[in-house]
Amino acid sequence: MENSSYNPYVTERIRRLDGALMGVCYSAPFMHCEQESTALLNGSNIISLHNQLPDTPERIIIPLVGNTLARFLKAPENYPSLQMENVSLAINYASLVKHEAALREAALHHAFWLYDLAPPGTCWQNIASFPFSGIVLNDEFFQDNYLKFSFPFLLGSCREREAEVILRTPHLPLPLSVYEDLQLSGWQEQRTESPLFEV
Question: In angstroms, how far is the first alpha carbon of the chain from the final one?
C-alpha cells in the first residue's frame, strides 16, 4: 500500500566547501506528475525524514525537463512560488537548445541553473549568452578537466557573470585545497548513480 503522507521527492543537499548547508536540489522534477504511470518518482530511493526539505534552505533548486518544462514554459506566470529569491530552476543543455526563446523570456523573472555543462555537440555561445545564475559540473566532467590549463579560465568566465559553480558528486575525493583553489562555490551530494536529468 502506498503511503501518501511522504513526499516522493528526494533531496540532495548542496554544501559550501566548509560543509555548511547552502541549499537543496530535488533529484526528481518538482512538478512532475504523470497520470498514466503508477510508478513512484525516484522509486529506487528510500524516503525517510533525512530526505525531507530543511526548514529554511538558503537555496532550492528544482529540475525541469521534458513535459514538465514545456508545461511551465506555456505559462510561467502561473508559478509565482518559483520566482522566489531562493528558488532556482535547473535545466540541461538539450532543454536550453530546444526552448531557448521561451527560456530567455522566463529568465526575466526566474533564476536558472545549467546542470550538464558541455555534452557532446555543445555550442558555447548558447551557454555564454544565457543568464544562468549557476552552473553545476558533474563528477565525470570535473575529473576529466580539472587539471587542464583552460579549466580555471572556464570557471573564471562563470564567476565574471556572477554565476555560482558547484560540483555534483557522491563525495569530495580530492584534497579540499584543490576545490578551494578553483574557487568552486560548493558541491551537491549526489545520492544516486543516475544523472539529475534522465536522457
Answer: 30
> What are the residue ranges of helices labelled H in the chain?
66-74, 93-98, 100-106, 124-128, 139-145, 151-160, 176-181
How far, CA to CA in Å, does 161 sit from each of 4, 39, 128, 134? 42, 40, 9, 10
Which helix (H) or strand (E) segment holds residue 186: the answer is strand 186-189
The CA distance from 196 to 36, in Å, is 22
- 47-101 pLDDT per residue, tens: 443 445 555 568 999 999 888 899 999 999 999 989 999 999 999 999 999 999 9
Beta bridge partners, 187, equal 15, 167
DSSP string, 74-129: H-GGG-GGGGSTTEEEEE-HHHHHHTHHHHHHHTTTSEEEE-S-S-TT--HHHHHT
| 66, 34 Cβ separation under 8 angstroms | no
